[in-house]
Amino acid sequence: MASRTVAKDIITLRGSAAIVSEFFGYAANSILYNRGVYPEESFAKVKKYGLPMLLTQDEGVKSFITNLTAQLSEWLEAGKLQRVVMVIMSKATNEVLERWNFSIETDSDVFEKGVSREKSDREIMREIQAIMRQIASSITYLPCLDEPCVFDVLAYTDMDVAVPFTWIESDPKLIANPQMVKLHSFDTKIHKVDTLVSYKNDEWDEQ
Amino acid sequence: MDPETEFLSSKRQTGNEWELFKENVRPLKRGRNVDLLNHALKARTNDQLKKSLLENRRRLIEAIDEYQGDDPLQPWLDCIKWVQEAFPPGGDFSGLVLIYEQCVRAFWHSDHYKDDLRYLKVWLEYAEHCSDAEVIYCFLDANDIGKTHSAYYIAYALHMESKSKMKAANDILNLGISSNAQPIEKLRDAYKKFLARSMRRPNATEEELKEDDLPVRSFGTVLARGESQRQAIKTFELGRNKLKQDQVHRTPLSIYNDTNMDVTRGHHSKPNTGSNSWHTLGGRAERNKENNAMPAKWTSHKIPQRPVPRIVGAVASAQIEVFVDEECEEKPKVHDEKDRTSSLQLRELDGRNIKKETELLRENPLRNFPSNSLPR
Q1: Which of helix, strand or coil describes residue A154?
Q2: Which band of pLDDT confidence, cut at 50, 70 and 90, is reported for residue B296?
Q3: B25/A52 Cβ within 8 A
Q4: B1-115, which class in CATH?
Q5: For residues B83 and B69, what is the distance between their CA atoms, to the nearest angstrom?
Q6: Taking residues A179-196, what's their average pLDDT?
Q7: Which of A163, B57, B71, B376 is 20 to 30 Å from B244 at the Cα level?
Q8: pLDDT of residue B291 exceeding 80
Q9: Other CB atoms closer than 10 Å to residue B340's CB: what's the count?
Q10: Which A-chain residues 39-78 have CB contacts (< 8 A) with chain B?
Q11: What's the pLDDT tens digit per position in A94-117?
């Protein structure tokens, strides 16, 4: 019986940065859709990762996310990005209700020795698909966001990174005593991305 | 180190039962604790865990009776929250509806809790489980419960909206605003959204005039609760449909009855009564009559009853004996006077009774209340 070897693709640093930043763009859209931050009608369906993914058609949000992913890609290529957090806050009170935390581990060898890695593209896509499915299924346990919300994105970088023009230094916007759920990860062999969602304990006596 | 960083660096994993069994989980507005959820899902196939769940429930019910402090509502809330988390599918066997009912009935006359938001929330959650919650809202109105809170007006108005009673919903929201219910911003916002929705509605005025509204044909989108506001009309596979599926079973299906001529009131097309209607398809109303008719008594046809010998006194043998594991057997307790009205009732019920009682409550949520408390 012949054994099947999975065809591997070469992953370069640039390629990996593109995969991760693209992932983040789609994940951000998915979160905005599934959590109802923007109305459903403002999203359009596209096919990506073998799934129907939703992308916002709102020009403002679109360009925000495009600029964001471009910046993330730049940081990823420089190996300076440690974490990206999408924060969902109440519009009325600015209270942080939910945090989608994507933490990134970068293979330092790639920078020091300039090597590239091998991994099947399909396998990476399957890993990302698993995360996207989990994001959509998270309504199983996440509290209902029944008030208007806004979102923001925080990036944790190495200390020696200059703050770009369109970004400002910020406090971490943490949730006190959060409930936390770890979702699947994906790994391009150059960047490994862990996903965590944390949310507020919704209590009986909250308005 | 913040909790998230700590969690990530610890390499701890969250179990994925929640994802594997998500069809069996009823989403809660308040959200769920994932560890409890995973535990509860594992318990379905693991007797040890199941026992520990039952043990927990017992303890929480005891806590209600043994509570000595000055906030007797609190142990009820702990129990409710726990039952919701421990019985993820919810449903008629969880006993949740019974607990809601006993809780609200325990305190309905208490001035102490009239304005308590937590107490109101128990009522509102109870209402969400009933087939027609209007009687609950009337009760709250008549007994002045929760009327300082926006949540009351919002829920009541949403309910009326789901029955297409737009004017009533409008009045309720306005009343809430003029009563300065808190938080007022939330109420104003809900009103704005309501207005936007009512603009989008077709035949808005026509529906208001109808006395007995024909149930609008839908599959779960009728219940305009906060959660289902976001139900997609075009459905996408990922995630969104679960809330919809869960809410369908609460509104009873109306059963077609040929003799009920009311079916056609308000619709444009006339039915082809009597005549051989195979030549014409009939108007939309007629074609759709199975889904639109109001149920009425079946008076036209009698089925002869087959005489069955009545067995007196042999009831015990006719019952199916439920096998109870030794470990799970409940030790008979000595009941004292208190138990008449206390929550210990819950413990005595087995699965069958819980389901039956739950169904009765769904239909008539105030059935156990003294008649002098009910609104006229």
Answers
A1: strand
A2: confident
A3: no
A4: mainly alpha
A5: 22
A6: 93
A7: B57
A8: no
A9: 9
A10: 40, 45, 51-52, 54
A11: 999 999 999 999 988 877 777 788
Place of tokens 């307790």: B333
Cβ neighbours of B371 (radius 10 Å): 6
**Tens of pLDDT along B173-229?**
999 999 999 888 889 988 998 998 888 877 544 444 444 444 444 444 334 444 443
Q: How far apart are CA B31 and CA A37, in angstroms?
A: 17
Closest B-chain CA to A207: B183
| ipTM exceeding 0.90, yes/no | no
For B358, half-sphere exposure in the C-beta direction (CA atoms, 13 angstrom radius) is 20
Mean pLDDT throughout B272-277? 46
A-B contacts at Cβ under 8 angstroms: 124
**What average pLDDT does this structure show over A143-171?**
89
Residue of higher predicted confidence among A122 and B205: A122
CA distance B286 to chain A (A): 33
Amino acid at B205: T
Partners of B236 on chain A (C-beta within 8 Å) are 45, 52, 54
Quote the pTM value: 0.66
Does B239 sit within 8 Å of A139, measured CB to CB?
yes
Question: What confidence category does residue B240 fall into, taking pLDDT thresholds of 50, 70 and 90?
Answer: very low
Fill in the amino acid letter for B93: F
Q: Which amino acid is at A65?
A: I
Is the CB of B32 less than 8 angstroms away from the CB of A140? yes
Among B14, B118, B232, the residue with its CB nearest the CB of A205 is B118
Give the per-residue pLDDT at B3.
87
**Out of B29, B34, B118, whose CB is closest to A179?**
B34
Within an 8 Å CB–CB cutoff, is residue B238 touching chain A? yes
User: Which secondary structure element, helix H or strand E, spans residue A118, and what is its range?
Assistant: strand A117-119
Q: In this structure, how many other beta carbons lie within 10 angstroms of the beta carbon of residue B75?
A: 20
Specify the amino acid at residue B374: L
Q: Any chain A CB within 8 A of the CB of B36?
A: no
More confident: B326 or B189: B189
Contact call for B4 and A179, based on CB within 8 A: no
The confidence score (pLDDT) of residue B156 equals 94
The answer to whether the CB atoms of B7 and A180 lie below 8 A apart is yes
Give the nearest partner residue to B4 out of A45, A180, A207, using CB atoms: A180
Q: Is the dihedral of CA B132, B135, B141, B146 positive or negative?
A: negative
Domain ranges of chain A: 9-160+167-199
Measured between CA atoms, the residue of chain B closest to residue A129 is: B238
Q: Of B2, B186, B239, which is closest to A147 when you measure between CB atoms?
A: B186
Domain boundaries, chain B: 1-115
Q: Is A90 on the interface with B (CB under 8 A)?
A: no
Give A134's contacts in chain B (Cβ within 8 Å). Answer: 19
Which class does domain A9-160+167-199 fall in? alpha beta
Q: Judge contact between B42 and B52, C-beta under 8 A.
A: no
Residue A35 has pLDDT above 90, yes or no: yes
Q: Does B23 touch chain A (CB under 8 A)?
A: no
